[in-house]
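Before a computer can learn anything about folding, someone has to put a protein's shape into writing. The three-dimensional part falls to structure tokens, numbers that each stand for a local backbone shape. The protein below has been through that process, and both of its lines are reproduced in full.
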Amino acid sequence: MKSVKIFLALITVFLLFHFSLIAQKPINEVTLTYNISVQSTNEKTDVAKSLEGALLTVYLKGKQSRSDMKSSIGFESNLYDDKIGKGFILKEYSGQKLMITLNKENWLQKNQYYQNLNFKIEGGDELIAGFKCKKATALLTNGKSFTVYYTPELLLSNNQYNNSFVLLPGVPVQFELESGNLKFKYVLSKVNYDVISSSKFEIPKSGYRVMTYEDNQQLKKGDRK
């Protein structure tokens, strides 16, 4: 009887270890959908109102990533292939369609403000949007704190899709980003494991005005003068 109990205990330990490994296996292909709410640090502006109900959809397939942000004022996509170090940005606003080409240096520079964040993981768990989350905080270069609630139950094989989360040990569930006087709150609403068509990551052959990342940066500088 004692040997049977020992055997059952070993089987239990093995199963717990086995399922733990399955749960921690990095996900190679997934679609993440985030609801976006917008607040203005001043009064609620027309821009904030026009962005209400915006959605962010992130497609990950191997080393390829695509992030689509859709709102009532337009559509923007960021695509990047970490294997070859190339990507592009698609913008469609007010009837204008622009494609900005990127190399690896451009991709890193584009989001350098949030790059290589070292997160401090806090104890305890919180339930957000149905996901069991932990709180992680990092210090930005301007001295402000950046807080992310993430689920460690989901790990991504491609952690280069967003510079902000390269060192985050899980999938971000809730976080906030600031741009000017606007604050964007992202909350994960859906996780889909269906196969993603390779066409999602193909570069459009026509219909867009094309420019390099460097040319676009110079254009922005000229607009600010």
